[in-house]
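Run log // design_07
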């Protein structure tokens, strides 16, 4: 299940990056209103206004905190008011706005906080997956050695049974010739039965160890592999490993996934604290705008007045009936299509610009202060977590190094014990053959030899398992086996 976590956290990075993705917004509206007028300047007793507008806005936020916005809009208006000079009219405008924060939300580090935290979370998720793989591999290796231990113990039990059976046959021969009483046969038979019980128990232990290994291998429950015996390919080896404890601790502090995750979490806390500190500042924005407008439509006729005697007076000017020194000319302006309004914008016939500073002061600023304080506590908490994990790592490494040394000494001692028990049994067997010992003594020495062999097997397996545990607590188990976790 852990293998999906990095993919899930990777989508969070895309989500945070999407904050800086440009957007394109469209808006369209159509409406009409009729209202009574209470003044002669209304253009009629009842005036009906109809509007239809469309706008498109492109918004592009930048990582430094600034935002660029470009809007194009067109508005068509018609009215029954007699005072309107353009009816219907087409008003168009293109407006560019650039907003730059100067205090709050200023800077790459502040605005990329979400991306940085998401990237660190992805690294944490990958580290957790590697840790899961490492723990699973360690469990599988230990289960493998447990299976090998069960098989080795079974061999020892079989060898013990063979000794008991051979001794039983020898005892029967001696009893038949009269050199031993029949009770000696009973003792030998009881020993054989006891060791057959050990064989049965050992077979069950092998099956249990096989099932544990299959479960760690995640074999489907309906697979035929559940019914096939597992034959380990490698016998346990005793390769003496000398470990420098100080170097081992340094390796663990550098390689352990849990410490890597804790340090990445601290990096997240530092980034969040930096962001929260910035959010305590006032909001001061510099806003710059530049735009151009255009007007088109049906222009209603209007009258212009000229001086009659002026040479520039156009022909067709009608003298005023009251004052003949002036004359009037009715002008019929041409209709302009909506495209003409865009031409006026392109030519910047009617442009405008503005610049402003906008300041916002949160009175009390309690929300930002509380968030900053909480973030600071979380940072300190993360630092303490790293210290605790480093202490835990040091203790685990020391224990693992000590266990490797202890198990190696156990192996050497167990081997000596097995050799001595073998020699002791051989000597006792010869004494028995010469009538200088009893069946009880020989059978006891056989049991001692079997116990010594079982202890030797367990010491060898424990040594190999302690090496696995050492690599696990050092964080280098995957490196030891040249295993690379794919991205």
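design_07 sequence
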């Amino acid at each position: 299940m852990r293998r999906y976590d990095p993919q899930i956290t990777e989508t969070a990075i895309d989500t945070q990056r999407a904050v800086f993705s440009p957007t394109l917004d469209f808006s369209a509206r159509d409406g009409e209103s009729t209202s009574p007028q209470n003044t002669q300047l209304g253009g009629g007793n009842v005036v009906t206004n109809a509007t239809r507008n469309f706008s498109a806005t492109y918004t592009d936020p930048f990582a430094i905190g600034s935002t660029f916005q470009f809007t194009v809009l067109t508005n068509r208006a018609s009215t029954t008011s007699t005072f309107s000079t353009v009816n219907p009219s087409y008003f168009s405008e293109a407006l560019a706005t650039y907003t730059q924060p100067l205090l709050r939300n200023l800077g790459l580090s502040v605005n990329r906080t979400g991306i940085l935290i998401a990237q660190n979370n992805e690294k944490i998720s990958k580290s957790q997956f590697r840790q899961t793989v490492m723990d699973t591999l360690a469990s599988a290796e230990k289960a493998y050695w447990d299976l090998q231990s069960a098989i080795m113990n079974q061999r020892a039990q079989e060898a013990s049974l063979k000794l008991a059976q051979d001794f039983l046959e020898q005892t029967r021969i001696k009893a038949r010739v009269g050199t031993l009483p029949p009770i000696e046969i009973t003792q030998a038979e009881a020993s054989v039965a006891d060791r057959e019980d050990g064989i049965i128990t050992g077979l069950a232990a092998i099956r249990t160890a096989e099932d544990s290994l299959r479960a760690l291998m995640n074999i489907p429950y309906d697979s035929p592999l559940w019914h096939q015996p597992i034959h380990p390919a490698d016998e346990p080896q005793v390769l003496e490993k000398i470990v420098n404890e100080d170097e081992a601790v340094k390796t663990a502090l550098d390689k352990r996934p849990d410490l890597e995750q804790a340090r990445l979490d601290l990096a997240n806390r530092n980034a969040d604290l930096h962001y929260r500190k910035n959010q305590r500042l006032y909001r001061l924005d510099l806003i710059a705008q530049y735009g151009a407008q255009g007007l088109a439509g049906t222009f209603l006729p209007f009258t212009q007045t000229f001086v009659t005697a002026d040479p520039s007076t156009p022909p067709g000017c009608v003298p005023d009936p009251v004052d003949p020194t002036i004359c009037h000319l009715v002008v019929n302006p041409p209709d302009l299509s909506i495209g003409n309004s865009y031409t006026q914008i392109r030519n910047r016939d009617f442009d405008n610009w503005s610049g402003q500073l906008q300041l916002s002061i949160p009175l009390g600023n309690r929300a930002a202060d509380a968030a900053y304080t909480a973030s600071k506590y979380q940072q300190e908490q993360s630092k303490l977590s790293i210290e605790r994990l480093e202490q835990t790592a040091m203790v685990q490494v020391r224990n693992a190094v000590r266990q490797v040394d202890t198990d190696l000494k156990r192996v050497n001692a167990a081997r000596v014990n097995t050799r001595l028990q073998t020699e002791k049994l051989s000597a006792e067997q010869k004494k028995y053959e010469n009538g200088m010992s009893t069946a009880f003594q020989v059978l006891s020495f056989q049991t001692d030899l079997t116990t010594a062999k079982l202890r030797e097997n367990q010491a060898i397996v424990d040594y190999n398992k302690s090496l696995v545990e050492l690599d696990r607590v050092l964080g280098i188990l995957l490196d030891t086996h040249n295993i690379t976790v794919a991205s």
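Residues 430 and 436 are 8 Å apart (CA to CA).
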